[in-house]
Amino acid sequence: MTNKNSYKVKNKMFTKILIANRGEIACRIIKTAKKMGILTVAVYSDADAESLHVHMADEAVYLGPSPSRESYLLVDKVIEAAKITGAQAIHPGYGFLSENAEFCKQCSQENITFIGPPVGAIEAMGSKSAAKNIMEKANVPLVPGYHGDEQSEDILKKSADEMGYPVLLKATAGGGGKGMRQVWKESEFSEGLAAAKREAKSSFGDDRMLVEKYLTQPRHVEIQVFCDNHNNAVYLFERDCSVQRRHQKVIEEAPAFSMSEALRAQMGESAIKSAQAIGYQGAGTVEFLLDVDGSFYFMEMNTRLQVEHPVTEMITGQDLVEWQLRVAAGEYLPKTQDELVLNGHAFEARIYAEDPSNDFLPATGTLEFLQTPIESKHVRIDTGVRQGDEVSVFYDPMIAKLIVWDENREKALQRMAKALSEYRINGVTTNIDFLYNLATCKPFVEADIDTGFIEKNNDLIFHTGSQTLANELPMAALYLVLSQAKNAEQNAEKTNDPYSPWNNTNAWRLNEPHTHQLVLAHNDIEYSVVVEQKRQGNGSYYLITVNGQNFDCKNHDCQGSIDGEVLKVSIDGYRSQATIAHFNNNISLYCNRNGQNGVFKFTHVLPDCGDSSTDNNHGGLIAPMNGTMVSVLVNTGDKVEKDQALVIMEAMKMEHTIRAPEKGTIEAIFFTEGEMVDGGAELLSFVAEEG
Ligand code: ADP
Fold it and tell me: Which residues form the pocket of ligand 1, taking CB atoms under 6 Å from any ligand atom?
């Protein structure tokens, strides 16, 4: 490595940059620019006129209507915005124009610095087989397989037979998991190839295939690399991103668990080789599959800053956006490999507006209530929204990234569980409870993780297994009684006669035990719960009966056991605690103890209150996001049943099924297969059956 001193290159740092992005990443970049004394220009669409990134920037330029094709993806408009504001460089963030070679080219034609790699590097990583050829020449390990030009079925099959099954067929033009098929045995090869080719043809207009050995329990381990234009390159260790739903990352961590120093160095050096093979500059990520035997294979290189970069920042103490700006301005890398130290462990959880129990369908709405955990050196929140903001159909529904750090994995994971239990959002369906269940489930805690983690542990994460609720029902009931008592006490303090028995809510009856009758619903099943309050010495204890089953439930402490949001209880001699979130009539118990981890949701069913506001707002017949129409499953005039699948849309690498909200008739269908759909567009007209 060339000897460096970043301060030797003087007066080259930008004074103003434009951020061609929105949301959390735009805010994230603005923060670093501010710290460095660089002015920032935001760009925005109609939907984002009042959004946080616009408020944080020094200047902002309007691009156009809300759909990103009419605003954030308009190369000319973005460049024009930089020119009129005098921004010397553009940071593309991730997504949008960040890996668009044409945009990168036009920036340089206009003498604007693209804060990213040279155009050649973006182009080199565009095709899977071309990228593999480059990596093969650079001696970077590839998954055993065939990625040649010869495409006859015989040749492809021969390579599969030789390497042994299972194999994975991949479209060379592929992306987003499209045109990919596992083939488990020789007799299924022909059929699998035909299906993969069909999908590749319709998705990319190109049905060329490559064949790879299919690894059955791989981990996704990626290396953060950085190169400057003085021939220096370093790796900033690895991230494990194996926890994925349909190839999309959910929780990432750094460093990867059970990683030896030797393997780390080997993967790091391979990643640097990959980057150097394409003349890389700036921040990049080399993604590898790591097999159970410690072999690792190049998968792809992302030529931009990754969503999950904060976990690397937490364990290295470096600001990667600052590194990007310095490198783009021509400075040397701020640190040499030897100077980089790995410290502690970090996790990132992606908080999305989506419904995990409905196939992760993106959700929209207003963030009516938003309360985040308190930020500290252990807890970081990267977000682009505030309370009252709208999560619209137009963009990625990520609300925030919650990042935690501590000195080891176990402690960091405890911080993650606590922070998730303190993250409160109302008004929009989110994946917070799903994340909490995932982060606290035993296999995750024990790092028994590969890319099939969510499918494998589905029952555990979604609590679909039989649960006794033996502790949780009494806890929820006790919480209600205690919180009512607490409220009554607080109200009483405001009256003229705080000691009047009429202020009590303790179900006091002359000569009778104090009894509360409650109905609590869990997973749509109602339980009637009787809470009998009994005196004992100076305090009281509660006898709780659930549908006839007896639970002897004593207060943890005679003063009452709600401490802030934490409920402390002792049930049948077993002491435990849970963080409670209580909105309207919904009570969530965040439990984190061995055996029964996760969040348990109850609804307090009130007599004669009518419908207890179940959230049926799953997007209905309006496109819940920008995407492509994959399949139309009904015809005009069809009579359909409630929940019948009507159309399938694809967005964000995932397919989403839109179902009939009720029994009814299809009056008209507005999109055909293959068409692009803007979020919010009416997909079909549907008339519900009367009555
Ligand atoms: P795409 O570009 O379509 O997203 P990738 O090649 O990046 O496809 O692979 C996506 C995901 O598929 C990986 O993160 C991994 O989980 C899985 N995968 C890819 N190749 C293999 C393989 N050879 N064996 C097992 N799983 C694989």
Answer: 143, 168, 174-177, 180, 212-215, 218, 220, 247, 289, 299-300, 451
